[in-house]
Here is the input.
Amino acid sequence: MPALAGAADYKKHFIVANKVAKAEGEPWIDEYRTNTKDFERGKDPSAAIAEFNYLAFDGSVASSIRLCAIYAYGVESEVNPIAGLFWCGKAYEAGYKAAESIRRELFLKHWPEYEG
Here is the structure.
């Protein structure tokens, strides 16, 4: 299945996530930064993704935003529409309005019969 229309723009979501992480501070910022470095250097991205999931379940909005982009656009992983919808929903609920358009596009890409 082709990538979402904004797939080339996933980095802008990562930039927002990094800014949110700074604002979140403790207890997540150190782990978030370590995972971000590992992920962006390609050092075991699946382990970094697992850690982002842990942080997001613990309440890190920054990790939710990053996971939204990772799963929706298939960054260093396969596109995972279920996880993408979940994390984009969490990011949106936490105030990241751009996540709603990602979530909608992801949903309609994988379940087009519901459009309209």
Summary: The helical segments are 10-24, 29-40, 45-57, 61-73, 81-93, 98-110. DSSP finds six helices and no strands in the chain. The CA atoms of residues 20 and 62 lie 5 Å apart.
